[in-house]
Amino acid sequence: MRTASPDFAATSAFESIAIWNLTDPGRVATNDRAPGCTVISLDHPCPAGHIWAMKVTIRQAETADRATIAAASRATWEEHRARQPYSFPENGWDMLLARDHEIAFRDAKGQPVAVSENLYVAEAGTQIVGFILLSWHLRADAPPYHKGAVSDIWVHEDWRGKGIAKELVATAKELADAEDWDELTAQVWEGAPSTRLFVEAGFQRRSTIWRYGPDRPARPLEPASETPDGGTDSWWRWAVLAVILACFAVIMISQQ
What we know:
Helix content: 25-40%
Radius of gyration: 23 Å
């Protein structure tokens, strides 16, 4: 993987966030804001009287990033659940998003990979300050598919408002264009701060879901294996039974 080391000198007037995107080494996005201090790491704030230029890198996620990304994704789920408990089950992350994050580090045969092809992170120094997870169809060995989605996105609360999420979404759009997808979609819940992000990135509202029901917490999701007989997950059992009965009938006929 190529690395970049442009010079970012300290400034006495404005803080400058420079986002270096490894998917497009020719572009460096900058975001100059009011006087202040952009920390080099959250544990080491800038010295008094100093204002630093900060380099943020957008790159493909690696295995070593998984724990940080998973913890941030789970925290985001809990934020959504606090706002809309009737739509986000307590075990929803484990039952739904955990699998998406797992297969982001596997190929089409289920074998582990060291670098993800559909999960990207924003890194400041050695710290992960944001990520975006896209459809697994971005993988080189995935079957052809012409639609994609933003499955998960997050920026550390101390780094929001600095253009990091905007650059993550820009990366997603570039990848969608490179894959010639017919569309790239994102599901945004009412009241979520990411609404403005996607509107400004050129996304258009395609549908609205209206909800009726009590405002009680959502019921926990049940494992697919526990689906009652006759549910959508039990069709294969009937198919196997039909094959067995057909074979049995053929044997009986042949013996007559």
